[in-house]
Design a protein that fits this description.
This protein has one domain. It is built from one helix and five strands. The strands form two sheets. A three-stranded antiparallel sheet has the order 2-1-5, with no helix packed on it. A hairpin with a 6-residue loop joins strand 3 and strand 4. It binds zinc ion.
């Protein structure tokens, strides 16, 4: 099953906890009207979806 990890393009690290990956089509925070996310890696506030790169991962 395909799963999605959100990468913060500003720092290149994961924007969410590395254990927090999302089933495809169920990335709830991307659908929120007021999108904000605190980057897990650099702790910057991400307010623009364009700052995220979504990567498919295959759990081991
Ligand atoms: Zn970051």
């Amino acid at each position: 099953m395909s799963r999605i990890l959100a990468i913060h393009t500003g720092c290149g690290g994961p924007a969410t906890d590395e254990d927090t990956i999302y089933p495809e089509q169920q990335i709830s925070f991307l659908n929120d009207e007021a999108f904000t996310l605190t980057c897990f890696t650099c702790l910057d506030e991400i307010s623009d979806r364009e700052e995220l790169r979504l990567t498919e991962v295959n759990p081991q």
